[in-house]
Records
---
Amino acid sequence: MTATLEVAGLSTHFFTRAGVVKAVDGVSFSVQRGQVLGLVGESGSGKTVTGLSIMGLVDRPGRIVSGSIKLAGQELVGLSEKGWRTIRGRKIAMIFQDPMMTLNPVLRIDTQMIETVLAHADVSKDSARERCRQALSRVGIPSPDERLTAYPHQFSGGMRQRVAIAIALLHDPELIIADEPTTALDVTIQAQIIAQVQKLAAETGTAIVWVTHDLAVVSGLSDRLAVMYAGRIIEEGPTAEVLTQPHHPYTAGLLHSLPINNPRGQPLNQIPGSTPSLLRLPPGCPFGPRCTRKQHDCTQAMPPETQGANGVRLRCYHPVAREGAMA
Amino acid sequence: MSAPKYLVDARDVSKRFSQEPDLAQKVAGLLGARTKRIVVHALDHVSLGIAEGEVVGLVGESGSGKSTLGRIIAGIWEPSEGEIHFAGRPRNELNDTQRRAADLAVQMVFQDPMSSLNPRMHVAEIIGEAPEYHGIVKASETAAYVADIMQKVGLDPSFAERYPHQFSGGQRARIGIARALAVKPRVIVADEAIAALDVSIQAQVINLFMKLRADLGLAYLFISHDLGVVRHLADRVAILYLGRIVESAPADELFNTPNHPYTVALLANMPKVETGKHAFAPLEGEIPSPINPPSGCHFHPRCAHAMPRCAEVAPKLREVAPGRLSACHLNDGA
Amino acid sequence: MTDAALTSAAVAPPVETPFRRFASDFFANKVAAVALVIIVILALLAIFAPWVTPQNPYDLTQISIFDNMLKPGAKSMEGKTFWLGTDEQGRDMFSAMIYGLRMSLFVSAVATSIAVLVGVSLGVTAAYFGGRVDSIIMRIVDLQLSFPAILIALILLAALGKGVDKVILALMLVQWAYYARTVRGNALVERRREYIEAAQCLALPRYRIIFRHLLPNCLPPLIVIATVQVAHAISLEATLSFLGVGVPITEPSLGLLISNGYKYILSGKYWVSVFPGLMLLLTILSINLVGDHLRDLLNPRLKA
């Protein structure tokens, strides 16, 4: 069976005046139908640019310099703008951190949604409206008929994000890229949205790439987890595997630094230093300067990708041994 | 006179924000248009104190008024009703010298590490301005003083002449902390001070907060939506919902045996690193708007235990166990 | 925290100061760069007029009525060449123009500076205090802006009479309101930023917060407006002088020079009006080109 999304050796670089920023550098992963992949990283890790690359939304001065992105077997890299229009919004949809990226503030919700339906489907306006109504109720918006005639500003932040998700689901896309969709929301609202997305993915078989900085958010949602650092995936595998037995010192360090994994009131196990500038990456492993397990070979070359046990892929010369793991 | 219980405390504080109609709206009103004066009850009779050296966690979602309370305690805003007491005396009754000392004793660290730093000042100015102005250090000694504080918060003093945009997010957060420390405060109000930081940097800044507390005996009002962080740091936790404190208790007890249904829901919805996929059971319903909060107990429309009385009478915040306050009618029978 | 934040940070490595970055952005646009060079040259010419002009056109001992209305390139009685011709009193047009430019730039620059000072102080005060102070200041601004600038200036000058000081006063009075309004708008945005709250929390006095924290951060958009307004002031001054209510005849500006010569245009003696006119055009055009480009650079919405 072909995977819904297959990304291989993807590199997206930005050619700025100050130099080449290798925002995404040789990233490979795949997502199966109905699966959720958590793409985790800090700012500058390349997680957002990876999402935008899959959507074909990388603008100058950036471009995809190499690699392949296959959606259900169809190559997307090098697609014409016309070709993209049949994909974007219909086969791949995107949910942003700020739902107002998708919503037009001066148009009513129904105007925007019906337009989206009619853009890709040859149906009557009435049936388009009915589809919008169903989409809204599917994401848990009460009294959808009434809400259809409202403007975006009349919704709360959480409701707006639900509308954005409803719009993303209009054409039953094969893949949804969700870029920090709950980061700006309150705890209780975030839980609602995650529950909704989890239910929808199971019902529709849509594959989801959930981009986030928050391990906790994806831990209960995703099937697989890919941890990015400085433009590369440094560890990827089944969520439970990565979280219970992190092999990469960065993944392990992130987990160890969480307050919940530290005795109350004691200093946290922090990762020293800060994320490197992509313009001045250290030689070898980019995490090297912050790594407690660093040895001489780490400064020589980027560790190659190795296949570990239990379906985990890793880029590290000196992975954390099992006994160091904790939940 | 016995020593006051709290170093700084808000007593029965309310804050209303009203939008006065502008000229055009007044004219429209004369012509018969319905213009309404919008009043937001950001805080509704809230009392909260911070004792010397204590860490109080203040938790709430958007619209809860947690930032408003922080700013009132920090002296940036005046309450609409109620008083802020400093060392047991109403802040408004202090003379100028005492008032200034009280103002400087409570400092704030902000959420956005970029917008909380003046982009046109270099770090030495940002940190050194206030102590120099208030005569805490002599002008000739400011540079050494700033260097000392930068070292304390983990910044390289050789960066003193740099501007905020030349620093990373974590370093900017440290600058904000250094600016607060420079006037020798006794309480720091940290308003979502780590929320905008990267995960690996958050731990560093939390550690810095803890180290400063140990070294300087600082008290904190730690405002956050992140229960994990609050549990780690706080001695006592207060939960705000739509401008009212619904529960307040020592941190251990609050996290182990939450009393108020809203606290229970918050704890259940708190994102945790869990192994493996599981179903989420979220709290239903929207957070109501503070412009038009629900009657009675503000939480009743979302509460699983709501009784008819909850919609009519607002439950009083009362002691349900020693040191534990909760505002819920469920405690009435007990 | 998105990756975009990082890439934009990556574009500005710490070694590059904001000013240097701005300068290199500015000179990337060749038209604006040329316009700026022209402005600098014109300003230098005006400042050093007594040293760069062949004669002082207002020193009656240096001019001869017998040289009047000479064509460009003609020679004087004493053998000097008037490359741009002479006017009806025998003044060298080139010298007269440079002196006229000097007067035009002086009047507009002084008026604009005072207007900026007044407008900025009032605007930032209105924004910081809000409430009644804000209402009073801003209603005056509204009133001021509801009259055409030329009308206000004409009435003022008709009432006050001619004179350089009066023109400056008139130009200042018609301009300050723009700055007040712009600065207030910026200040209202900046005032809500956390660094202002931090300054309040540090118990710094109000004047210090307003002038050291708030004001410097409201100024960048003002640079654009001030630039464009200088051009506007120059043309307004030229209009007033052309209409005969501006600077006195003994200290002509470009506008007055144009006015002096326009009656000869139809008789083929174009140079008396046309050269000062071209100078005026060049000045205003260059300033506007620079101003437009500054606006593009400083407008965050146009930045990718």
---
Amino acid sequence: MKSIVRKSFVKSLPVMAAYVILGMGFGILMHDHGYGPLWSIASSVFIYAGSMQYVTVDLLSTAASPLSAALMTLMVNARHLFYGISMVGKYRKMKRTRPYLIFGLTDETYSLLCDDRDHPADDREDELYCFLVTLFNQSYWVAGSALGAIIGSVLQFDSTGIDFSMTALFVTVFVEQWLTSKEQRAALTGIGVSLLCLLLFGESSFLIPTMLLITLILSIPYRRKASSHA
Amino acid sequence: MHDIHAVILIAIIAAVTMLLRFLPFLIFNGNHEVPRYILYLGDKLPYAIMGMLIMYCLRGVSFGALAGWLPSLLAVAAVVALHVWKRNTLLSIIGGTALYMFLVQVVFA
């Protein structure tokens, strides 16, 4: 039990820095637009989706309509469908904590829990481990948001460029996957298709076509394999 | 009015996010076995999606002026180099972000 707590805490450490820093960035941004600590904390508790919360600041300050907020969320967070699909098998047995595990499945939590390394072999221990990693991550994010809101009202400093920490996190995960797996072709497909769709559809609407095309291209080897077995 | 609007927006954004996260589990979680094709996709997708997320972060890069793309390029290169060298996630993120903030605030200001 104690070793599972330690194990999950250690696993979540890389996310701690990113979430506290990114959460602070969000809190500072919210404060700059006139929304204090309670607003930042409420967003981080109930929405809990990093890049979407940055977009939320835009939506709030431009008095966006509920419909355009819903569509924007659909676009920015559609990738979460894929995280869910790839975790259905793993979370199936985790009956007690599953609602929270699903609610808290962010990019970073997913990137920590999607591979099989470091998972305890015992099912109950694995559930506790997944639950704690998810919970630790959200507490970093909420704490960072609160801290940022407070810092924003007390300190004045130039935080321009702090949002690059999100890019840096994804690049780090990408490099780590590249070095430890044999899925370089899938990784390149992701980069290449995104680039193509970005050029074709522009930055505000390339995500949906990118996800469709990635799914299509990755399906080709599966079809071939399936038909050669038949 | 300002506050009511904010509460409504945050509630909607939270609800749509939750819907996207719960939907795959509602569809595939019953007594139905997860189709092999879905499992195959779940196996391959993480690698492609991580590439997509990087491009998502870099979508605002513009090639008009040097300041539009060089800071991102240099900082991404630094993250890759740092990570291949040390394999330390924290170091890669903090090093790359510090370099990027320095570049956009001082060098290309």
